[in-house]
Write a structure and sequence with these properties.
Layout (H helix, E strand, L loop, with lengths): L4 H7 L23 H12 L9 H12 L3
Length: about 70
């Protein structure tokens, strides 16, 4: 095990920051700092602010799958 202080600092777990406000995350609401920030994030997902990109190719492949007769 290395005893170099620089290497030990790199081995410690890094504190994660809340993706909404940047404060340190707490275990009860991880990865957020509070229930409020978790609710803000959920509201953004439900409101369509965040979107998972889907290519046209993905849509065609999915449609063909459902068009096939069993």
């Amino acid at each position: 095990m290395p005893t170099d202080p620089i290497n030990l600092a790199d081995a410690r777990p890094k504190k994660s920051a809340c993706p909404i406000c940047g404060r340190p995350a707490v275990p009860e609401a991880k990865p957020f700092c509070s229930k409020r920030c978790a609710d803000v994030d959920l509201s953004r997902w439900l409101g369509g602010v965040y979107r998972v990109p889907a290519g046209e190719q993905d849509d065609k492949a999915g449609a063909e799958k459902f068009d096939e007769d069993p």
